């Protein structure tokens, strides 16, 4: 009897251990939400791809196409990565709720598999490899951090995988996997061209302080370009201060800026640290205008700053979904759907994620197949006029009406937003940079390649 009971006990232990191994390994989320430690998608706990109505992809009898989202879902990059992942989930829910997408002779539902790269270079390698080797995904969206995006892009040359990059805007990203990588957000080397002249002419800034993540790949390149641009147009850079991810005591840096004689502050960093820097600057009594390159919604800034502390703040960023903006009809529709699904206002990165989803859908329909090479070539051949009307950003048609140039870069204007004390949120102010095109980026990267001794992949 004891022997029999012992066998039963051993069997129970084995089953329990198997369950822990199977469900405690942190599997990816499969609906566009963040992966929880148990592997279920945040929001519904099921780990299954879900349509907007809650039905699983494929439940309609359609075929299922898996796409990946690789982004910063936790940590300091989460304010950027989560909205982008959510926007892809929103797009997939729309397709599935409409009965799927017709690709050639077949109709497909979309299943979204998400991984958290934590804005980390090592994680960026791990997550893209899992999407390729474990999940057999050919199309990956997301990419809000240049650091993790560059590390991932270095893994895909020669592989049947396409990266559709959103908010990761370092120019160098396009050098590592030419032909496989496409980016809808304008490279950040263009920002100084548009931003600095506007700041001088429209905000009256003649002496500027710059606070930036100088130790981060994307932000440091951007900040140094901004400093050069300010100096070229006669704006004196009177202070350069550094902040890092997780820095919330910035009193020393802000004291230096407050005492520098600057009549404007330009910040390039994550939302949490940037908001804390502004708060501490205002607590020192400084009222100089703040211009941020950091994206983020009004409520995200108000988690740290008061409405009064936000007064005199501006955000200059690639065109986003914004009420009252020039792309108002598409923006308003997207904002409404996003708020209904997620209960919050979408950020800049959500705009990028949503557009990239519809760019991929247009390429799939243009190719008439899900076969990777055909779809990847269709992305190269996409014209702006091919895009779904739900696309938000007003992309600049290139030669032949193409969306992407030979490096895989798209181009579009910038939005200037000013803090509204009445609305306690960012409000549309202006659109700039409508005339930007490929020449500046190509020359910038050619010079970089010459300095680094690497081959320039463009024409």
CATH architecture of the largest domain: 3-Layer(aba) Sandwich
State the oligomer: single chain
**Number of DSSP helical runs:** 14
**Helicity range of the residues?**
25-40%
If you consult CATH, what is the topology of the largest domain? Rossmann fold
What's the CATH superfamily of the largest domain, by name? Answer: Response regulator
Backbone shape: globular
Report the C-alpha radius of gyration, rounded: 23 Å
CATH class term of the largest domain: Alpha Beta
Poorly predicted runs: 1-55
Element-level helix/strand string: HEHEEHEHEEHEHEHEHEHHEHHHEEH
* End-to-end Cα distance: 81 Å
Could you say which structural class the secondary elements and strand pairing correspond to?
alpha/beta
Q: What is the strand arrangement across the widest sheet? A: 8-7-9-10-11-12-13
Give the number of DSSP strands: 13
Structural domains: how many: 2
Outline the biggest β-sheet: 7 strands, mixed
Would you tell me the overall average pLDDT?
86
Into which percentage range does the β-strand content fall?
A: 15-25%
Family: Belongs to the leucine-binding protein family.
Protein name: Branched-chain amino acid ABC transporter, amino acid-binding protein
Pfam family, one: Peripla_BP_6
Keywords: Signal
């Amino acid at each position: 009897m004891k022997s029999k009971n012992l066998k039963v006990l051993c069997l129970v232990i084995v089953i329990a251990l198997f369950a822990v191994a199977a469900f405690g390994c942190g599997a990816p989320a499969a609906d566009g939400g963040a992966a929880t430690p148990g592997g279920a998608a945040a929001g519904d706990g099921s780990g299954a791809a879900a349509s907007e109505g809650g039905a699983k992809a494929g439940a309609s009898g359609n075929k299922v196409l898996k796409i990946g989202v690789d982004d910063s879902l936790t940590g300091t990059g989460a304010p950027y990565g989560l909205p982008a992942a959510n926007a892809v989930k929103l797009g997939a829910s729309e397709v599935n709720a409409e009965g799927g997408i017709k690709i050639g002779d077949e109709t497909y539902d979309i299943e979204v598999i998400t991984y958290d790269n934590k804005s980390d270079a090592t994680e960026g390698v791990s997550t893209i490899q899992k999407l390729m080797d474990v999940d057999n995904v050919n199309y990956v969206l997301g990419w809000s951090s240049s650091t993790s995006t560059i590390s991932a892009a270095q893994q895909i040359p020669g592989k049947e995988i396409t990266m559709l990059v959103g908010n990761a805007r370092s120019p160098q990203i396009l050098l590592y996997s030419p032909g496989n990588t496409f980016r809808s957000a304008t490279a950040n080397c263009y920002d100084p061209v548009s931003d600095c002249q506007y700041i001088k002419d429209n905000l009256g800034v003649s002496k500027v302080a710059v606070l930036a993540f100088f130790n981060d790949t994307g932000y440091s390149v951007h900040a140094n370009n901004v400093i050069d641009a300010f100096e070229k147009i006669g704006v004196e850079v009177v202070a350069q201060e550094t902040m890092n991810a997780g820095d919330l005591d910035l009193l020393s840096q802000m004291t230096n800026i407050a005492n520098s004689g600057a009549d404007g502050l330009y910040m390039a960093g994550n939302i949490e640290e940037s908001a804390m820097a502004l708060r501490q600057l205002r607590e020192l009594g400084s009222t100089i205008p703040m211009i941020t390159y950091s994206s983020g919604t009004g409520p995200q800034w108000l988690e740290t700053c008061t409405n009064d502390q936000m007064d005199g703040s501006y955000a200059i960023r690639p065109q986003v979904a914004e009420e009252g903006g020039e792309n108002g009809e598409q923006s308003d529709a997207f904002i409404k759907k996003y708020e209904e699904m997620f209960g919050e206002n979408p950020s800049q990165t959500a705009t990028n994620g949503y557009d990239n989803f519809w760019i991929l859908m247009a390429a799939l329909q243009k190719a008439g197949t899900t076969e990777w090479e055909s779809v990847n070539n269709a992305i190269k051949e996409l014209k702006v006029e091919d895009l779904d009307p739900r696309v938000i950003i007003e992309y600049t048609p290139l030669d032949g009406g193409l969306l992407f140039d030979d490096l895989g870069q798209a181009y579009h204007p910038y939005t200037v937003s000013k803090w509204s004390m009445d609305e306690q949120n960012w409000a549309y102010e202006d659109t700039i940079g409508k005339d930007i095109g490929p020449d500046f980026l190509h020359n910038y990267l050619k010079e970089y390649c010459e300095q680094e001794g690497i081959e320039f992949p463009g024409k």
